[in-house]
Amino acid sequence: MTTTIRIGVLTVSDRASRGEYEDLGGPAIREYLQKTLVSDWTEDYCVIADDRASIATALREMVDERDCCLIITTGGTGPAVRDVTPEVTSDVCEKMMPGFGELMRKVSLEKVPTAILSRQTAGIRGSCLIVNLPGQPKAIRECLDAVMPAIPYCIDLIGGPRLETNPEQIVAFRPKGK
To answer: Which of 28, 48, 68, 74 lies in disulfide reach of 137, CB 3.0 to 4.6 Å?
Structure first.
């Protein structure tokens, strides 16, 4: 029996959730994963408002009910009043992984000085890794390029399914023999 690998893609945006503009972040994540992962996977995609309760509900459902092993969020990581994605991620996770945010900010700061305002982070809920990304497609790709080498091994360590990457895109790090 083959287990279906489920990956959540969650766009957090008041305006996109109301249909005032097209969500570009979620599709950018999907496109990146389609090029990078060679494992068979199914997407669980959702666009929601910048609202603590809605974000928490979506994250919990993606992990607890839909068995996502990875959730990548976009949006809600800035300093604006309604940007609360990192706080909600911290609330629903058992363990935070601050190195992800540190690396993403480092990479982004090489491109734009305002990256210091970004509050990307990551955390673990059960056997799922949740990674918060900024909202711009270019920044999404840059941040994923930085952290993707560590994501498959992290998911291995927390008891999730084995994710394999396309080595022409990203080489996943795993200790020898793993």
So the answer is: 28
